[in-house]
Amino acid sequence: MTAEAIADPGWIAHLTKGAEWNRWNLQIPRGRENRNLQVPSEDANPPWGERADGMRAARSYGMTSLEHFPPARAIGRCLLLLALGGCSGADDPVEDAGTPDAQDCSALEQKISAELDVAAQDPNIVGTPDFTLLLESQDGRAYTHSHGNAGPTVVYESASTSKLVSAVIILDLVDQGVLSLETKAHDLLPFWTETTVTLRQLLSFTSGFYDEPFCLNVGGANFETCVESIYTDNAATAPAAGTVYQYSSSHLQVAGLMAIKAKGVASWTEIFNAWKAKTGLFPTATYDLPSATNPRLAGGMHWNATEYLGFLRALSAGQILAPATRTQLFANQRGSATLTNSPAWAKVQEDWSYGLGNWLECPTAKTLGGFDCGTGHRNSSPGAYGSYPFLDFDHHYVGVLARMGELGQGFEGVLLFRSAAEDIAKWADGACGP
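^ that's the sequence the OP posted. Answer follows.
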């Protein structure tokens, strides 16, 4: 059934997206005498954001929940939402399956908050207790909790949380045809005489150019001259491109200069401002560390948690980046490269792999080089001050834990989150009852 097929004046809300999305069909007739959730096929799930939009529409008409479930289970669970009518295509009587209500979720949320508060006071977990956690599920439910001197609109230094943002901005230029993942640094940078390093290798930190010159931390340094220093400092000793993974700020700085040259603009600020105008994301965020003229793309933003969550929401919903590009963003790009420097291994003794500017988490990989988690589970971009933005594909939600700890406390945000991770997964799944 297409959206057009049901868009008659008698309906004030519907949730159908044509042939590519025909699993869900939420209809709310005028007067709300009948609320009917049709599940016409076994086809692919709609994007998270559109499901969330439908949930918000449902709430506006007095409906309190929209749980994702397969059509085979839908027969007995169609009227999840205060419904009084029947379920399209269902032969059996409809029963109330006990969908999580606000009270049930409130109790679970209180438990999550208590677990986080206890962990925030544990010196074995964190050195600085202040934090804010924002979560959003695919059906539009939201959770917010702050501890101490923190909040959703407090401005934080990004540290490495900007890596994911920078990668997405550069990949948007790939979608525009300005760059490709196989574009070589040599093609755009006149001083780069080495001929093999590609944009993909730079974004996946396998370029071999990982030694960081001091100018990356000098506000008065010239951005392009500093990137040239990255080249001259590494050219004689860099391993073959693609053979070594090394976590470093240098890779993204080179990629950023490639973007500037390919776009034909004068600065990264112009690239960022154009992307903000296009997407509406991060309206107040800045790249200004160590300065606006020499920003560190791998760790030089200021942002607040509300805006970072908005970015994660748009990314998860497919509102930014073409599907194929988004797949590349989250895919394992480390390949067979030898692992040398990994803060994930150093901090939590887990071998996480790397996509394009973000980690592929793997809690089961307890040996170096033992990554065995595949893709499509949880991708993240923790920062050195303890912030932790992530997308969870197993439980279909996004979140950001924002904090400003001491430098080097990066994975404390991960550990703090894990103190309540089991209950948070239940919350994301809608399993809010006892």
